[in-house]
Amino acid sequence: MTTIAHISDLHFGRDLQPVTEGLLASLDAIQPELIIISGDLTQRAKTVEYEAGQDFLRRLQQPRFIIPGNHDLAAWNVLERFAYPWRKWKQYVAADLEPMMQTDAFIAVGVNTARRMGWYLDWSRGRINRRQIQYVQNMLQQAPEDCLRLAVAHHPFWLPDSSLSRHLIGRREEALQGFRAAGVDLILGGHVHLAYVQPLEGMLVSHAGTTISNRLIPGQPNSFNVIRGDRKVLELEQMEWRGEGFEPITKQFFQRTEGGWQPHVDF
Ligand SMILES: [Fe+2]
Ligand SMILES: [Fe+2]
């Protein structure tokens, strides 16, 4: 059995110090094998925010796996946004924008779905391209059958009706088809600052809320998720900030059948 912590949308610049300390204490107690961070490390991609993000990453005791989000691109500095959009990310966070990590228990592949611009006014929207879909497929192909397969992208492949105005990721259908063919078990994301788990075409889409920032939407406290299990059975636990620390709120169980992942109620 593996244990993976999934945190997201830290938004340094809008981070809450007590919540950050609570998160680190919680992670120390959980001792995950890996900490996945699904984008929006900063609020406005400012140097001071990247420095704060780097300090935080250095404090993590476990291996980490991090991809960028739309907020990690400069919003107002046009030259930076278009000429060298990921220079700060590479300087302060990681050389690789699309990491891959494999152990005996799992394989995780990340894609960068933030875009410098698009054919629409809202440039916070994200997109996956064909090279990235192929990249996920290529990486997963080499994994042993019993290896849990995770694809990590900042933007959502599924949204509850109440959040559809946030837009699903571009080229979603083609990506889902490719992911399914590659045997993806879990698609992890953030962006909407909303925590949910949704079975989708035999896979599980799981989003973490904003874990430590004050960019909260009504009714959604700071949160993160803990994934426990293997390629047969998974437990997805949601941890919520309750003023003095993170506490477990819900646990959902899933089992993998011939048709893919389904809710399991007999635990
Ligand atoms: Fe965000
Ligand atoms: Fe975002």
From TrEMBL:
Pfam families, alphabetized: Metallophos
A GO molecular-function annotation: metal ion binding
Domain Calcineurin-like phosphoesterase span(s) in chain numbering: 3-193
Keywords of the record: Hydrolase, Iron, Metal-binding
Domain of life the protein comes from: Bacteria
Gene3D superfamilies: 3.60.21.10
SUPFAM superfamilies: Metallo-dependent phosphatases
Family of this protein: Belongs to the cyclic nucleotide phosphodiesterase class-III family.
Protein name: Metallophosphoesterase
Organism in which the protein naturally occurs: Thiothrix nivea (strain ATCC 35100 / DSM 5205 / JP2)
